[in-house]
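Usage example:
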Amino acid sequence: MAWDLDALIEKAQRRELLPENTIRELCNKAKELLLSEDNVRHVQAPVTVVGDVHGQFYDVLEIFRIGGQCPDTNYVFLGDYVDRGYYSVETITLLLCLKVRYPDRVTLVRGNHECRAVTQVYGFYNECCEKYKGGLVWSYFTDVFDYLVLAVVISDTILCIHGGLSPSLHTLDQIRVIDRFREIPHDGPMADLVWSDPQQVDGDEISGFTLSPRGAGYIFGEDVTRHFLEINGFGHICRAHQLCMEGYQILFDDMLSTVWSAPNYCYRVGNMASLLEIGPGLERYFNVFAACPDDQRTSDPQGGEVSFKALVQELLMEEDERKSKDFQKSYDSYSQNVALDVQDTGIVTNFRTSKTLSQYFI
Amino acid sequence: MDRDDAVRSTNDDALVCKLSAATTGYLADPFVSVLLKRLPHRVAPIMHRGTYVRTAALDALVARFMGVAAAAGRRSQVVSLGAGSDTRFLLLKEGRRNPGLYVEIDFPQITSKKAMALARGRTTKPLLGDFQVGAGGAEIIAQDYWLLAGDLRNFASEILPRLVRMGLQPSEPTLFLSECVMIYLDPTVSDAIVAAAASEFSAPFFVTYEQILPDDAFGRVMISNLKARNIELPGIFAHPTLHSQVERYMSAGFTVARAIDINEVWDKHISLEEKARLARLEIFDEVEEWVLLSRHYCISWTAKVSDGSGLSQELALRGWLSSD
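Running the assembly step on the lines above writes:
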């Protein structure tokens, strides 16, 4: 297949899976690009900052509808592209295509889910194995994750990271010297950047850093935040990582904000989501939105009946294209038949493609 | 899929979560694999933790109930409504901590599968002792364990009289268990069950685990998601809060009642050692969702203890779910 990024993007937007060797090629090109990017990437406003999306592909399309298509709008994504949602593969594929196509208009920051350990527990690994019949594609993607940047600074004023601050990091330069090209470690400054949380409004006021209930990273308070901003000459920190029912949260007298971009998270939480739109004068606006309406979440790009004409066309198709169509079929049939063979007798109980399979206690 | 089928399908979900929690190490349960051979899909850590917490809480309440009965020198009886694929009796029997009588009731479609599995399982059959299979393979009747087919909509009119005829003693301490069961019933039916337990028994106890809080964003989405699977929760609107859970028992004639949500169970009643043990099993990155989900599930328990019954009212209430 000739390498045509625009064609790939179009396919990705239709939620068609790209063939395995295309994914490998895409990941290689992404790594080449990202290798030359600093741990801390500098971009200029205007720019739109996007929080966790967690494989909610249709809501990502909604984000582009609301925030503007690439490359018209400049985007910074703050990580957590995969896990939890049903379409992590399609989501990360689309975002990597856009990054490779418009490298100066898309920035991808690493989240705590962009690592091998977490994706094996929270769904991305399983999804890759189901959709690509094996773990190779997962390894291509997780290799790219090792290359994602750790932080973004917008117009020398707004620092963007996935999680939060670290007791080991007082200055931007300390972030710059981290060796990021590796799996996220269990602790240390790189882990803290993707796992930490600011202390919540209804918690007891803390000073400095305390241990996080997540088991990695820290909880940090207002004093630490103020100190970091002053030392580095920043005006604001924007991060993601924490679910916000209203789509965003502003803390510490507007020194820090959380942007959350996965509406009705896990198809269960019923929350709003938002995009942080930063204007040319660094004005900050949270554009709040709800989940993509159900009737726009189509399941089947191939439609129902196959006409004779289509059959003939299929016969005349090139080998590569035919292969990709075949495996598109098996992917669709997986997503449409969530079958439960609870008695292991070969008799399956068919649920309608269910959003609630083991999501509630019932 | 009709309504009853949809309700029966909830047992499949619970069974998958239970098996996954057991194989991951949250729960020690060698019997659940007799009922389900392999996992059809992955189960998230949040569901493992929730399965662990609900099992721990109900186990503690059942154990406490039996302790109260034993302290008074009385025979204890447990009636598990809509028991589904629950393995509690097997675990108790294996540990020789089972009550005088343990009764499980569910739809015949469910009891027949369970009866077959238990009667033939290499590890389960010995625990039944001498038993008979009845109702065309849908029931097991052993000396201390009855697996019976029935429709809870006929609890007061048919099931309860039958149990009494078979030998359930209304004068002995009896615990009724509803683990995500009454919520599926019309409130008039579930009220009738609670009322029958209160009025027909001298020393009735009742324990319920089910959903609450239908009116916030999470609750509304939950109800709509379940509706997409044809599962309705009529009980959640009748008893939507912890307070109304307590009320449902008190107004039926019980004398003491309490209700707490799963957050409170996790925060106050699971030891630090246990929490540390669970933390070592797998990564848990769902803290906010856990709190939200757990807010929507409650454990409520109640007793009707009259003076002269030999059962301490205070012990019945205070002793449940505390460490003493």
